[in-house]
Amino acid sequence: xxxxxxxxSYVFLFLWxxxxxxxxxxxIEHSFADGDFDPExxxxxxxxILPDSLLPLILEKNKLAHDKHDVDQEMMLTNIxxxxxxxxxxxxxxxxxxxxxxxxxIQKGDSSAVFQAYYxxxxxxxxxxxxxxxxxxxxxxxxxxxxxxxxxxIYYAIGETSRSSNTVEGFHSEEYYRxxxxxxxxxxxxxxxxxxxxxxxxxxxxxxxxxxxxxxxxTKGRRDSLTYSIDLLQKGLRYRPESKISHAALGLNYCALxxxxxxxxxxxxxxxxxxxxxxxxxxxxxxLSSYYICAGRYDEAIAASEESYAFAEERNxxxxxxxxxxxxxxxxxxxGDARKALEALETExxxxxxxxxxxxxxxxxxxxxxxxTRLKEEELHLTQVKETFFMRIAFLLFVACLVFLLLFIxxxxxxxxxxxxxxxxxxxxxxxxxxxxxxxxxxxxxxxxEEIRTGKQYPTESDRELFEAVxxxxxxDELYQDSTLTLGNLSKMMGVNRVTxxxxxxxxxxxxxxxxxxxxxVKEAILLMESDRSKPPSTRHSMxxxxxxxxxxxxxxxxxxxxxxxxxxxxxxxxxx
Length: 577
What we know:
577 residues; mainly alpha; Serine Threonine Protein Phosphatase 5, Tetratricopeptide repeat; 77% helix; elongated; disordered N terminus
């Protein structure tokens, strides 16, 4: 008994915990490494070593931390109390504490503490054997920020609960075990590696059910699953040789293969380790019973299971009692004692009903927790909205008005600028289209002098004469309206060599034959558009008709040539006439 004064009680309490924990560190690590799917949490918040006389003080300090909104202190004390509730089987008390902490941290908006709060509730449900409910809380916890080590543990917890769950998530247990294993290797965490390997081994073959399958014919698929499960367990034990749960699973897997000699060394180690811890004594005895059943030593199996049942009954561990009753049923069944087997089966069924009743009760509590949590979240949300609503709305309205004003000014100025530019382009294009001479390609004397200086070719007198003759023929006969007109056809009409004609056009206009002809076609299109201005909309030419009447083969080449000549698309040009 530690006597402390009120003023210094808090300091002395944690000093005592630290000294006691330091002295028993090795024992605790060996004792609780396998007692839960989160051995790290047990080592961090080990409460079983605390005497009952300190519980009122811890509860008082926990309430004080809650009232003062000291999240860190409350989280540490709540974890201690929750772990103790799990070890003592007082799950409803633990749920009350976990619920209080969960609602508090949600209201404070501390995301890291929310993770731990959801995680605690999940642990409590898992300890009671309620995998479905536990899985829901672990999945919620996984949505909040956490360290890599916490992520490794939560993935393992999700894998463990989903493997036991009846929900769809149960089909993904291997995926979560793999994630946990990957992070464990990155952290070089031997405990986590062993846990992940153990979980994966149970996906392929759960050795703890080996005694149920002992008379089932061995198939190749079952043997392969057993072999792979054994490989995984051996890999985990290389990282953590003292893992009694992995030793137990490995031994029972060997039992399933009929290799009892190999099985015994692992079973013996696991059972001895479990028997050192009162809370795990029923587990150790049930493991021993499983081995005896597989070995055909039914009387010894019955004795071990009965002792396990009595031990679990003394501590009101209904889950362990149910497992012991199940093993008694199989031991009596294989021994041939039908009456005792039936009694054990009835006991198991009665315990299952009691567990289901407790599950329903806990589900009601879970519903209350969910309801209270949801109310807290809604209350927090409404409070935040009320505090910031008008400021946010005013700011957003100001920003929106400013953006709209700037956008409106920009669009108006851009529209004015574009319309002015379009009008100018239309004006120049109309003047260009109305001209008789091909001004775009004919070069003046200054340009010719520049070409001589830069080494470019310029038209000779014969080139000019030939070009003028060609241009006159094209304009007179409106040859450009013929969409089949080619350089070869034109050279035959003019009675000149094709190359000579091409050079004359190129040197005189700076363009090739197609561009030269398209210039006239574009002019024709502009004239058609201008003539349509005075007509009713129903009688105006369509763009396709204008293209074909101007001499273009298709709309695409028409648009391309029109844009090149005027700087505008046909539709934009028509709009700005």
